[in-house]
Amino acid sequence: MAGGYDDRDGYIWMDGKLVPWRDANVHILTHAMHYASSVFEGERAYGGKIFKSREHSERLRYSGEQLDMPVPFTVDELEAAKYETMKANNLTDAYVRAVAWRGAGEDMGVSSKRNPVRVAIATWSWGNYYGDAKMKGAKLDISKWKRPSPETIPSKAKAAGLYMICTMSKHAAEAKGCSDALMMDYRGYVAEATGANVFFVKDGEVHTPDPDCFLNGLTRQTVIGILKDRQIKVHERHIMPEELEGFEQCWLTGTAAEVTPVGQIGDYNFEVGALTRDISDAYEKLVRS
Questions:
Q1: Contact 144/268 with Cβ under 8 angstroms?
Q2: Of 185, 176, 172, 170, nearest to 256 (Cα)?
Q3: Is the dihedral of CA 193, 275, 209, 51 positive or negative?
Q4: Per residue in 202-237, pLDDT tens?
Q5: Cα 5 to the chain's mean position, in Å?
Q6: Of the candidates 235, 222, 209, the residue with the CA atom closest to the CA atom of residue 280
Q7: pLDDT, tens only, 24-81
Q8: Is 158 a catalytic residue?
């Protein structure tokens, strides 16, 4: 599949039915476009099976609840729709994007209670999120933007509005020749990359930021389970930026990123070491099992 994402062959599931890809449109006064009333999920299918599909559907509904925007489809209905969309597009290995948003309706202001909540699911082929960094290690900038306090926004929701500073951070990183950016949280602790969680290795043990103000990714949780199955000590804790100098290895996790090694963050360099490779390989085997 090539070309702009608005001009492709195939089908997108919208509000209970499949529509031709190019006809999957919304009105310019859609509430989400003006006020960020949107939540989404990114998922991957391997060999016809969506990894942790049900957990993703459950999180979509949870995110909608957090934004006072109840998703009008059950988990079972969302599950059926995802597989229906993959089948319609003749895909078995695919990226799956489910999105729910406040549409156009009687309200066109901050309040949107009278506007319908709409849902769509698109599927397409998508390779490595970081390109060849998956093999040699990604290079990360350090963002000037910080993840916000959970007192300011529902940080446990996968909400579109939370990604605005991620987009700006990634644009700034790419302008410097980097793949992504590492973000700190509102207190100055290491948080995450723009669309992935981060792990560090030191003396055979793994350290990862406590997700108390950002998304505790499903891939993050899966990787922690892999590490614990291997009897590798995992420290979920607050990490100060100056600690980066003492870590030996680093990797990112996310549905799109999968497990991607990191070779550099700012002025700090990391080895793409044996543990990083082992966890990446173990994750690849698990999602295809």
A1: no
A2: 170
A3: positive
A4: 999 999 999 999 999 999 999 999 999 999 999 999
A5: 18
A6: 222
A7: 999 999 999 999 999 999 999 999 999 999 999 999 999 999 999 999 999 999 999 9
A8: yes
Q: How far apart are CA 86 and CA 72, in angstroms?
A: 21
Kindly provide the residue ranges of all beta strands, DSSP E only, lying in the chain, ordered along the sequence: 11-14, 17-20, 38-46, 49-50, 94-102, 117-124, 138-147, 180-185, 190-193, 197-202, 205-209, 234-237, 249-254, 258-265, 268-269
Dihedral sign (CA 255, 256, 259, 262): negative
Catalytic residue among 49, 134, 146, 158: 158
For 133-287, CATH number? 3.20.10.10
Domain 11-124 has CATH 3.40.50.150: no
Q: Where are the domains of the chain?
A: 11-124, 133-287
User: Which two three-digit tokens encode residue 189?
Assistant: 């602790």
Confidence of residue 130 (pLDDT cuts 50, 70, 90): confident
Residues in the chain: 289
**Structure letter (DSSP) for residue 32:** H
